[in-house]
Design goal:
Its cofactor is Zn(2+); Co(2+). By secondary structure, the chain is of the alpha/beta class. 35% of the residues lie in helices and 22% in strands. Helix 6 crosses helix 7 and helix 9 crosses helix 11. The two termini are 27 Å apart.
């Protein structure tokens, strides 16, 4: 597994946090690897201004001056079905460095694991796909095999949106996100929102003369918790693996500008789970109604209602539209893999909306993604790569 661990460690050592120069730089590195491997390579600069202006653009949470798309193509001999492997190269920031055992981008190999930010989510899966395509060069398949390296998955789906805009398509797609070797044919959705709570500022020593925006946020927060509970009482059987399939969480709260003042405004941002088969518009309406009801029950908020803004990544829920692909992937594992719907959004919904059947299957535990000391087991990466080879052999002919 020397080639596997060396390539994975090399990619993890690239700090390709979304929106940073390294997110663009890793694409050039991967393009060179593809050329050396003998793939046809399409590396292009994404037209950010045009894409982000499109009403259907899925959202973006970090600024980008440049971003690149990348596809490697192993051409078939003709007459077979095509297969795409789609993996994102962007990673989330490492967070508190003190929580890590060593450098978050060390790419350390220890006890059969590769450590570092992005090892699990999802450079391990990407390496599995890259090595699968490399092995398939000897197979002389009839259908094309594509490996798409995309950016911006973590904050909306820019890369896959740009991939489809470029005109790339396939008859089926596997996304090697970390699923712990489970087959995942569906994703919940996730919407990013912002709340603005108005108070009335004054000196803290005379706080009764003002209105604390923090205090007025509390009934709104309670209403959101009640909404979350109601939305998780009766869920699709695919989501029974999770205690809270459609989570609603406030991730950031900012209020006031001085310690001895009553805060006159609070801004809270959060993430809101969308149920399978639920439209984002319906989900938004439910949250807006819950906020409005909380405001109506409070005299101050009734006169100064909380505003709701929808911004950043907007992930619709999605299902794989072709059960045959799910069955073929499960068969290719050579086992009886677990099957469930993921409680988070992914690029699956963009591919499915474009008419491309897509399923997630990859190495690593999703609980390790975005966490300190993130890692992926090397043997799982190898296992996924072998499964992708078997699937391509049967699917592409």
């Amino acid at each position: 597994m020397t080639e596997l661990t060396e390539l994975l460690s090399e990619l993890v050592r690239v700090p390709s946090v979304g929106g940073t120069p390294a997110e663009a730089g890793i694409q050039a590195m991967l393009a060179e690897w593809m050329r050396e491997t003998g793939l046809e390579v399409d590396l292009w600069e994404l037209p950010l201004e045009r894409l982000t202006a499109d009403p259907a653009f899925p959202g973006m949470e970090v600024p980008r001056e440049r971003a690149y798309g990348l596809v490697g193509r192993l051409p078939g001999t003709g007459g077979g079905r095509s297969l795409m492997f789609n993996g994102h190269v962007d990673v989330v920031p490492p967070g508190d460095l003190a929580a890590w055992t060593d450098d978050p981008f060390s790419g350390r190999v220890e006890q059969g694991r590769v450590y570092g930010r992005g090892a699990c989510d999802m450079k391990g899966g990407l390496v599995a796909a890259l090595l699968a395509v490399k092995q398939l060069r000897q197979a002389r398949l009839r259908g094309d095999v594509l490996v798409a390296c995309v950016v911006g998955e973590e904050d909306g789906g820019l890369g896959t949106y740009g991939l489809l805009d470029r005109g790339w398509r396939a008859d089926a797609c596997v996304i090697p996100e970390p699923t712990g070797l489970a087959v995942v044919p569906a994703n919940a959705g996730a919407l990013t929102f912002r709340l603005r709570v108005t108070g009335q500022s004054t000196h803290a020593a005379r706080r009764t003369g003002g209105v604390s925006a923090v205090e007025k946020f509390l009934p709104v927060f309670a209403a959101l918790r009640e909404l979350e509970a109601a939305r998780n009482r009766d869920v699709d059987p695919l989501m029974h693996a999770w205690d809270l399939p459609y989570a609603l969480e406030i991730g950031t709260v900012h209020a006031g500008d001085w310690s001895s003042s009553v805060p006159g405004e609070l801004v809270a941002e959060g993430r809101y789970g969308v149920a399978l088969d639920e439209s984002p518009a319906r989900a938004k309406a439910a949250l807006e109604a819950a906020v409005a009801a909380a405001c109506a029950a409070d005299p101050w908020l009734a006169a100064h209602p909380v505003t709701v803004e929808w911004w950043g990544g907007q992930f619709a829920p999605a299902r794989n539209p072709d059960p045959a692909l799910t069955e073929a992937l499960a068969a290719a594992t050579g086992t009886e893999p677990a099957r469930w719907g993921a409680p988070y959004g992914s690029d699956l919904r963009l591919l499915a909306a474009a008419g491309i059947p897509a399923v997630q299957y990859g190495p690593g535990d999703i609980d390790l993604a975005h966490a300190p000391d993130e890692y992926v087991p090397v043997d799982e990466v190898a296992q996924v790569s072998a499964t992708l080879v078997r699937l391509a052999t049967t699917h592409c002919g």
